[in-house]
Description:
Layout (H helix, E strand, L loop, with lengths): L10 E3 L3 E2 L3 E6 L5 H14 L14 E5 L4 H11 L7 E4 L1 E2 L7 E2 L6 H11 L3 E5 L12 H17 L4 E7 L9 H4 L4 H5 L3 E4 L3
Parallel strand pairs: 3-9, 3-10, 4-5, 4-8, 8-9
Antiparallel strand pairs: 1-2, 6-7
Helix pairs in contact: 1-2
Amino acid sequence: MSEVESRPISWLWDRWLARGKIHLLGGHAGEGKSLLTAAIAAQMSSGSELPDGKGVSPVRTLFLLAEDDVADTVKPRLELHAARMESIFFIEAVREIDRPKAIFSLRRHLQLLEEAIREYGIDVLIIDPLSAFLQGSERNSEEVRDLLTPLADLAALDRRRSTRHHTHRQADRDESQTASTTTGSYCVRAKSRGCLDASS
Length: 200
């Protein structure tokens, strides 16, 4: 440890969203995870006051989407909170040689994601929901770790950036088990700097 230089955490949103780290927002379906995230992304895009009364410098956000339609769901939510639209971007699919609209894969398309982040100067990456991009591996801790480690490394490359995921909590488990049931693998929470519950 003698060669390691200590450094303080750099906060994008003080005490809530750390730069260069993965964060997790979990909860049951229908609890408003995507709505909450859109509201926060909108407020951060213009540097508006956040839910705790604090403000941030305007940031640029990239949504990686698998469920909500951009035109009739995501953008109206952003408009509702007066988002600065030129600071918000999205990816729904990628173009491959044999498929014009392939589902984004954390395993195959991470380089494309990195290129988009650098091209648009992204500060915050929102993956909604994370389970849709784990390729059925959400219950396999080793596979989840293999998928999330490069993503965490990508966030850490530039400490100005933060990554936020949505996961669905299983409805048939007790609240005391939330930590282990957010996506089915403990590794998802273990890789996260902060974990929030939308039902709180």
